[in-house]
Amino acid sequence: MTTAIAEAVPGTSRSAPAAKEIWTPFNAHSEGQRLFKEWYARLETANERHEPVANVFVMGNAIEILRSFDFHMVFPEINSLQTGVRKTSAEFIRISEDYGMSPDVCSYVKADVGMMLKEEKEPLGKMPKPDLSVSSNMCGTFIKWAEIWERRYKMPSFVLDLPGQRSSSWVVRPGDAQHSADSRWVEDQFKDLIAKCEKITGKRFDIDRLAEVQGRVNQMVIHWNNVMELNRTCPAPYNAMLDGLTYIGIMNVYRGTVEGVEFMRRLEEDVRAKVARGEGRVPEERFRLLFSGTPCYVSMRRLVELFETWGGVFAYSDYLTFAAGGMDAAELLYDTSRPLESLAEVTALAAQRGLSNQFFAHERMEKQIKDYGVDGVVFHGIKSCRFVSAGMADTRDYISKRLDIPTLYIESDLIDPRYWSDAQIKNRVDAFFEALQQRGGAGPLKGKATHAQGRTA
Amino acid sequence: MSAQIVPDYEAQLNAILDRCHSASLDARIPDAGELPEGYTGTLGNFPVYFPDEIAHAAGLLPVNILGGGNKLEMKHADARMGSFVCSICRSTTELGLNGTLAGLTGFVTHPICDAAKHLAGIWSRNLPDQMAEILYLPQNPNSPGAARYVAAEYQRLRAELARKVGHPISDAAIRSSIRLYNKKRRLMRELYQIRRDEPWKLSCSESYLLVRAGTRIPCEEHVELLEQALPAIRQRHVAAQDKPRVIFVGGFCEQPPLEMLETIDDACFVVDDDLLIGQRWFTEDVPEDVGDPVWALAESYIERSHASPVQHDERKPKGDYLMAMLRDGKADAAILTAAKFCEPGLDEQLFWSKDLDAAGVQYLVLEFEEKMTSFEQMAMQVETFAESLLFALA
User: Which of A156, A389, A391 lies nearest to residue B122, judging by beta carbons?
Assistant: First the structure.
């Protein structure tokens, strides 16, 4: 870790922690908040320091390359969801609708446009003007969103095209002909992106720095994969749709950084200790659930509360997979001896994992239901997000019929409070749990699910 | 001296338009026995663009699946798709679930938007006997290697179709299909040229029917119809009315009802549009006599194609091609439409309106759904818009 200072998040001088530290209690939530505040603080002054800035998304973003050029990363999705958490989204959405945006488009985009129209004042500070945006085809809205910035900031928008799963029962093995063809296309695009980054920053691409960033991403992915596997334990040590949101936020924002590795290392240590103590997120876990979709950030805690009061815990959510761009499998590790080729190979695989989670959701869900020993599946349809929601009701129909597992479908939005109907959602949740109880009651579930030992980072 | 027989062009054109109208409205998939000689099945494909030539060379009739229009009763799809999903995706799902599309050999969708991508999953869950695919046409046509990637994706499709039909698809067959489809696209370019030059001779709704028929009938028949229609249109004796010249955009995927286009025709000359743009995707002929016909298709897709709101291409800024349509059509104004719940369309509509504001060009914003049946209010809006344009232009 000799390059720790140089490879920390741009704008910081934090060194890597010493190999042996005195143990201090780890609170993932407060540590996550601290890291987020530091990130926003650095962003606020990036333009003044004339440091390059890129707008990116949580899926398909080539962060490894951008970080090797010392770009600051702005995640407009995270800014928008923060408006929901902080209950300011309604105002920004109103501003964008007054400007002419349709009520029927992504509320994240509308909140972002609202913030742009208010001169980039975001909930946690002023956002810098980007020099570049990197979007991808993983979500169609990303591209339209990037085109809005392109018009406003007159800067290049690079669309990374990531071929997804083409059909059901689609199997791509690393190195097979299909994977090689897809990887070659992704690598061609990375080379193009590198040329653009060189032009913007005036720096030459340093492949050794890319390898160092990749090494840290590998460590984070191993820890993250272990953290997710630990939630197969009963009782589940964390709630995938509450605690998991902080974890995934750090996975995205601090990907490939010293701070990110340290957070994930301590998180795994903490979760592992909880499992050893038999400590669950819910004091008396009665139902293990799978959550499909994204949270409703304006009522995030309320949504979880509605389930936890019944002893229901979200052991897994596909959100944790797709919103990390599919980078949650232990086999998705970079070969740092061939950085660029490996970046393309892993990105092509991860993209298919992240995309398939939605478009052919039924295929992976069957396995996830077994892996996490869940009693029921909750589908959360998002009014303004077709990526998550357009196939959801049909997937629910398929899962319910094929697997004979109870399912619940509720509908609201990402951050638009107009679509959260508390009484209606509560009624549906209560009825779901009553049905679950009737299917066999709510007994102690200890030992129902087991977890793998995990790999060492 | 015998009297010269003057062909009744108007009657001939009306007969062609009737044929096109009935073909456009028929959502049924023909059985193998009903298919013309040379075809052994049908391949459904979702808008915007699909390389029809590859299906045609396989002996499959390419059928562009354009939803259910405003005559379809929804019985199944409402329970399978949220109410916030666009009509064309919902009605396409309905046509799949109610058996109308049961005769398809396969169904191919594209990454034009997220709802469209979901159709492949819905198809595979509900119609497992049909081939259901996403053809990953790239959203980055600008990086080197894009044409090579598209060619590889087309070769994958070619192999899939060959497996499905049980015989290889030769290069010669694809070259022959390219020649045929080039002819069809040339004829459609002529059709649009007439509309730019003499819009009183061909209304937007008539032109639309002539193009739309090609989404369902064999290319051979469509070429024949267009070859007969074009001279008939040119011979038309119609006086130019006092109407403003406008362009129509927003019809690239979900189709506006024919009645809506007729409503606009009543008040305006629509000199250009993006209706069924995928049918007219190439701006020039695809090279015909090259070694690798699949490469010719792929390279044309990247280098010589139209623009649409659902493809990002840094060489084709959205505002620029809108301005080019206005300029080339000598149009006075634009009608900016979007299908309800169509995220790319709705986003584009707003930013197009900002571009036109900046350029000082008049426009009318309309939202439509394929299933809409009432047009009185829209007629009033269009008439008022046309009158204000005429007043300003006088």
Answer: A391
Compute the distance between CA of residue B171 and CA of residue A257 in angstroms, rounded to an integer.
Answer: 51
Domain boundaries, chain A: 26-438
Instruction: Note the pTM of the prediction, 2 decimals.
Output: 0.93
Kind of pairing, strands A121-122 and A125-126? antiparallel
ipTM of model: 0.94
A161-180 pLDDT, tens digit per residue, is 999 999 999 988 898 999 99
Residues in A 416-435 with any Cβ partner in B closer than 8 A? none
Q: How far, in Å, CA of A171 to CA of A194, rounded?
A: 30
Report the alpha-carbon distance of residue B179 to residue A35 in Å, rounded. Answer: 61
CA A213-A219-A224 angle, to 5 degrees, is 120
Model pLDDT, residue A126? 85
User: Taking the mean position of all CA atoms in its chain, how far away is CA A426?
Assistant: 26
Helix (H, G, I), strand (E, B) or coil at B167: coil
State the CB neighbour count (10 A cutoff) for residue A100.
14
pLDDT at B1: 47
Q: What percent of chain A has pLDDT over 70?
A: 90
Whole-angstrom Cα distance, residue A168 to residue B52?
23
pLDDT per 10-residue tile (average), chain B, 394 residues = 66 96 89 90 97 98 95 92 94 96 96 96 96 97 97 97 97 98 98 98 98 97 97 91 96 97 98 97 96 97 96 92 96 98 96 96 97 96 96 84
The answer to whether the Cβ–Cβ distance between B115 and A386 falls below 8 Å is yes
Q: B25, B98 in Cβ contact below 8 A?
A: no
Q: How many CA atoms lie within 13 A of A372 on its CB side?
A: 30
**What tokens were used for A191?**
């080379």
Closest CA to A140 of B38, B309, B330, B14: B309
Task: Say yes or no for a CB contact (<8 Å) between A394 and B125.
Answer: yes
Tokens representing B330 are: 């000598």
CA torsion through residues B19, B22, B27, B31, sign: negative
* Tokens standing for residue B160: 């899939």
Would you state the pLDDT for residue B9? Answer: 86
Asked if A104's CB is within 8 angstroms of B84's CB, the reply is yes
Judge whether A387 is closer than 8 Å to chain B, CB to CB: yes
> pLDDT band at A3, cuts 50/70/90?
very low
Of A100, A140, A161, Cβ closest to residue B138 = A161
Largest interatomic CA distance in chain A:
66
Is-contact A291 A241, C-beta < 8 A?
yes
